[in-house]
Amino acid sequence: xxxxxxxxxxxxxxxxxxxxxxxxxxxxxxxxxxxxxxxxxxxxxxxxxxxxxxxxxxxxxxxxxxxxxxxxxxxxxxxxxxxxxxxxxxxxxxxxxxxxxxxxxxxxxxxxxxxxxxxxxxxxxxxxxxxxxxxxxxxxxxxxxxxxxxxxxxxxxxxxxxxxxxxxxxxxxxxxxxxxxxxxxxxxxxxxxxxxxxxxxxxxxxxxxxxxxxxxxxxxxxxxxxxxxxxxxxxxxxxxxxxxxxxxxxxxxxxxxxxxxxxxxxxxxxxxxxxxxxxxxxx
Amino acid sequence: xxxxxxxxxxxxxxxxxxxxxxxxxxxxxxxxxxxxxxxxxxxxxxxxxxxxxxxxxxxxxxxxxxxxxxxxxxxxxxxxxxxxxxxxxxxxxxxxxxxxxxxxxxxxxxxxxxxxxxxxxxxxxxxxxxxxxxxxxxxxxxxxxxxxxxxxxxxxxxxxxxxxxxxxxxxxxxxxxxxxxxxxxxxxxxxxxxxx
Lengths: 283, 196
Prior knowledge:
The complex is a heterodimer of chains A (283) and B (196). By secondary structure, chain A is α/β, with parallel strands linked by helices. Chain A has two domains: 3-130, Alpha-helical ferredoxin (Fumarate Reductase Iron-sulfur Protein, Chain B, domain 2, Orthogonal Bundle); 145-282, 3-Layer(bba) Sandwich (FAD/NAD(P)-binding domain), CATH 3.50.50.60. Chain A contains 13 helices and six strands. Chain A has helices spanning 17-20, 33-40, 50-53, 61-69, 73-83, 87-93, 105-108, 116-130, 153-164, 181-184, 193-205, 222-228, 257-272; strands at 145-149, 168-172, 209-211, 231-234, 240-241, 254-256. In chain A, strand 1, helix 9 (153-164) and strand 2 form a beta-alpha-beta unit. Chain A is globular. Chain B has two domains: 8-115, FAD/NAD(P)-binding domain (3-Layer(bba) Sandwich); 124-189, no CATH class. Chain B is 27% helix and 27% strand. Chain B contains five helices and ten strands. Chain B has a four-stranded parallel beta sheet with strand order 3-2-1-8, covered by helices on one side. In chain B, helix 2 links the parallel strand 2 and strand 3. The model of chain B has no long low-confidence stretch (mean pLDDT 93). At the A-B interface, helix 6, helix 9, helix 12, strand 4 and strand 5 of A face helix 1, helix 2, strand 4, strand 8 and strand 9 of B.
């Protein structure tokens, strides 16, 4: 550790702009093992880690950086996943410059922050690859059930936590696939869809039930859902586009960002021929 | 209509969603992609990393520019009338508000105009047929901040519908907080603590 004095900050290589603008693949290459360990060892293990304070999840970042530097990756994954339901997603799309990395002590001292997000992604990708992430098998099954409306990040995180605790969990979503904005909002070049479906597949294998194409108010009232479950969680997100307030702003030719992104993401998903939850129902 | 191939695309807005749109348009083979934002680069709400990536990919940024009118007819956009802005006095939130520079307007060609100006909550009490579900003045759901329970007993809420449009990492946190509160409540219901 403390290698920030002699070792420069490095970020994963980016694909060439000309090449990446022609497809929807992710633009950052993943850290290789030696580079992840080398970069993790730049952490100063400072006494008051502001990175933890500035992470909404309070991730124990210095702890898992130290474990990566010592090549104790399985333990690093255990620590990282204890506070985060999808570290490989956060590693890719969090604005680290405004959160953990922006408040890193060695960043403040002018040495350049530890590349926390890339190491986080590396840990969890390794965990998937090595088979350390196994479907949940709760020690004690409870009869009580929870209905979750919305299969985005909030709903999925709650689903995993409740299922881990042995509750019966059913996640309703108005779209044909689970994932919410992770699947239909964020483009592939920032977050490849296979990363999201791997998580939703894992939840399904853990016993979480998904009900896609299900709209509360159309297919059931909230009241009916309450009657079916012991508790209900609403995690529907915010989807209404703010309007362009100027003459012509309401014209049909003016497209809402989310409609545009959903259409593009849907095309990519349909081309890849496989969704999650819904598509796996035929197994 | 939702494909940018061969089109001149203008995206209005400066957040992460606007960046997702401009970079998608590049990949769909747009003829040109322009991002219009009414403040300057320093005051953009989106991540600086994403702006840099978009610039590398050939997106043109028009800073301090705001749409004045959408040109064309009701069915099809043909361009935008754009006003030039400057940053004026700081408003109540401490951010300097953009003010129009008189006489600075110009027209921009566009076959496709995308609005990425942020998101608002849908009217859930109406959609869900549940008028007793209480909302805030912003339309988000009103919850107990400790448990994330709504005005309806046993109904909780988490993520953007409580917080307003925010980050994935905050949604995950909210989901975890709600799950813990729900689990505690249900365990209590299943096995009530005996009265002393």
